[in-house]
């Protein structure tokens, strides 16, 4: 059931700008994972059926922004954990506790494309994938908005990332930030 | 000095810029990885809070594993006795239980999920360390770059602001340095002389020491023998050279006086240079006198050689003819007669090429000694023939 993830339309340009122009991410895979988590934490969800639109240039097929299924298989463990975290924490679908549990641990089973396990067919994997994609796009949009003015200046970019790290650490209570108090953070909804 | 440093720092600018950029990119990437690990940790925490509130008691079937189901399917008979090969609904119900049994049971998966959550803290810590490393590397490289850029700006200001007085000061400094180095050079030359003296003294000591050594005696005697031989040869050469010079000087003056009818004097220097004078001043010879002088010199050499051969000394050789071309050119009639008179006395045989006008003057004196006479007849610019006259 693992399938290739394709950034389309304006999201393709944003992913390209962050990953290849500014070199913020090593690959589209990193961009995808980070964007989805960022979208979830900021309640940023874009409905792809509405927002994908058309690719902004004719060379889209020649230069696609794609996360290939073999890359996902390569990072299988992280990817499974990532999906479960999204499914368990998302409130977009207003699922009840049992449904969220079953969805995360029973139906969203990672199965590679060669498997013939029947459980894959009956899972809600593709439904979950749509939700995840919505957060990828929503997160990517706000991430791009946050950094777009700093993409060409690596000093400003690094300073912005550093502020982002500190502010999230402070808000989430994961790290002690010290005396700095930066209002630049996430956690709007969770 | 300013310019040198400025040039060196300017050359490093691009390297510094690239290093800062490279560290910044690595810091951004590792920073976002660290942030991602924070996101994971935070979401694990939230998910754990949610899971802790739930009761999973009805989700798993205790003490049965998926192996049990696979065994019953293979056996074809359920625990209750139903024939599973004939009842597909029962078989499907049994297979449906697989989702609730280890290893894929929800309870088991939640345990694994919680383990992953604990491990996430380590992942976050590692990511933090990596980010700190790149960030501090970036800061350090930025400081270096900033320091060097600031230094370049200072140097540029100094270079531009330098007044003529500054340059004069620099020239004065360099001149003083030159004087200092020259003085040092003199001192080294003095040192060198002192070392040379010490070396000579050391050689002398070595000689003394070797004299005392019996083993060196035969070599020392041979060296002494060679030294005496060399000294004798050198003395003999000098004595003979002095004698030859004296004899040549005497002969040359005599031959010249026999050939020359004017008032000028001639003599040879120690280096066999011909010197003409009027008894008071050194003079340059005319073309005609130059011919007489050269002739006298050659004739003197021939005379001395002839006399040596007669004496039967060290000189042993056959008599060779004296061959001369245009020998009387620019020479007056009287000199031609004088030279012609001397020629038969000085040489065994002479071959002379003369013009008709000179032969006319020489003929009365030389005719009696004539062996053969030829005439060169010019037919054209490119052709001449030789005719035998006598």
Radius of gyration of chain B: 60 Å
How far is the first residue's CA from the last residue's CA of chain B?
92 Å
User: What structural category arises from helix and sheet content of chain B?
Assistant: mainly alpha
CATH superfamily of the domain at 238-388 in chain B: P-loop containing nucleotide triphosphate hydrolases
Instruction: Give me the CATH architecture of the domain at 238-388 in chain B, please.
Output: 3-Layer(aba) Sandwich
Unreliable segments of chain A (pLDDT under 50, ≥5 consecutive)?
Answer: 113-118, 176-183
Provide a descriptive summary of the structure in words.
The complex is a heterodimer of chains A (190) and B (390). With 190 residues, chain A is mainly alpha-helical. Chain A folds into two domains: 5-151, no CATH class; 153-190, no CATH class. Chain A contains nine helices and two strands. Chain A has helices at 9-21, 28-41, 48-51, 69-74, 76-89, 97-107, 118-122, 125-147, 154-172, and strands at 5-7, 65-67. In chain A, strands 1-2 form a two-stranded antiparallel ribbon. In chain B, the strands form three sheets. A three-stranded antiparallel sheet of chain B has the order 1-2-3. In chain B, strands 4-5 form a two-stranded parallel ribbon. The longest helix of chain B has 56 residues, at 106-161. At the A-B interface, helix 2, helix 5, helix 6 and helix 9 of A face helix 1 and helix 4 of B.
């Amino acid at each position: 059931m693992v399938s290739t993830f394709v950034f389309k339309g304006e999201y393709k340009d944003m992913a390209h700008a962050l990953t290849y122009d500014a070199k913020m991410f090593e690959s589209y895979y990193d961009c995808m994972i980070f964007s989805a988590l960022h979208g979830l934490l900021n309640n940023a969800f874009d409905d792809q059926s509405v927002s994908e639109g058309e690719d902004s240039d004719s060379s889209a097929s020649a230069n696609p922004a794609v996360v290939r299924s073999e890359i996902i298989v390569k990072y299988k463990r992280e990817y499974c954990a990532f999906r479960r975290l999204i499914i368990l924490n998302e409130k977009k679908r207003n699922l009840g506790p049992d449904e969220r549990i079953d969805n995360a641990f029973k139906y969203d089973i990672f199965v590679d494309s060669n498997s013939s396990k029947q459980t894959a067919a009956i899972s809600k994997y593709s439904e979950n994938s749509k939700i995840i994609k919505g957060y990828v796009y929503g997160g990517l949009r706000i991430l791009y908005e946050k950094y777009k003015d700093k993409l060409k200046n690596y000093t400003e970019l690094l300073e912005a990332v550093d502020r982002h790290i500190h502010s999230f650490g402070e808000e989430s209570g994961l790290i002690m930030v010290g005396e700095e108090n930066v209002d630049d953070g996430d956690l709007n909804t969770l | 000095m300013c310019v040198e440093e400025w040039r060196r720092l300017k050359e490093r600018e691009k390297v510094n810029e690239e290093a800062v950029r490279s560290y910044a990119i690595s810091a951004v990437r590792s920073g976002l990885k660290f942030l991602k690990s924070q996101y994971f940790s935070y979401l694990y925490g939230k998910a754990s809070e949610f899971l802790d509130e739930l009761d999973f008691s009805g989700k798993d079937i205790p003490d049965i594993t998926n192996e049990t189901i696979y065994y019953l399917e293979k056996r074809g008979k359920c625990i209750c006795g139903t024939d599973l090969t004939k009842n597909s609904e029962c078989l499907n119900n049994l297979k449906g239980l697989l989702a609730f049994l280890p290893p894929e049971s929800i309870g088991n998966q939640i345990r694994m999920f919680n383990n992953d959550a604990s491990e996430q803290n380590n992942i976050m810590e590692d990511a933090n360390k990596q980010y700190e490393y790149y960030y501090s590397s970036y800061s350090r490289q930025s400081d270096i770059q900033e320091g060097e850029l600031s230094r370049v700006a200072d140097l540029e200001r100094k270079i531009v602001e330098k007044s003529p007085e500054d340059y004069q000061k620099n020239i004065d400094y360099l001149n003083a340095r030159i004087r200092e180095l020259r003085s040092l050079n003199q001192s080294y030359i003095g040192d060198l002389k002192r070392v040379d003296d010490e070396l000579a003294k050391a050689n002398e000591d070595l000689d003394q020491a070797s004299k005392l050594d019996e083993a060196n005696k035969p070599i020392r005697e041979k060296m002494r023998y060679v030294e005496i031989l060399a000294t004798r040869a050198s003395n003999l050469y000098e004595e003979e050279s002095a004698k030859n010079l004296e004899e040549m000087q005497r002969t040359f003056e005599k031959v010249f006086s026999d050939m020359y009818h004017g008032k000028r004097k001639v003599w040879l220097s120690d280096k066999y240079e011909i010197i003409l004078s009027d008894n008071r001043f050194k003079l340059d010879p005319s073309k005609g006198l130059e011919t007489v002088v050269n002739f006298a010199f050659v004739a003197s050499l021939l005379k001395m050689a002839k006399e040596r051969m007669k004496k039967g000394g060290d000189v042993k050789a056959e008599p060779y003819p004296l061959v001369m071309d245009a020998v009387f050119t620019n020479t007056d009639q009287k000199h031609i007669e004088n030279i012609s008179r001397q020629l038969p006395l000085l040489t065994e045989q002479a071959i002379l090429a003369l013009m008709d006008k000179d032969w006319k003057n020489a003929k009365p004196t030389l005719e009696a000694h004539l062996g053969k006479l030829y005439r060169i007849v010019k037919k054209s610019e490119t052709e001449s023939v030789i005719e035998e006259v006598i």
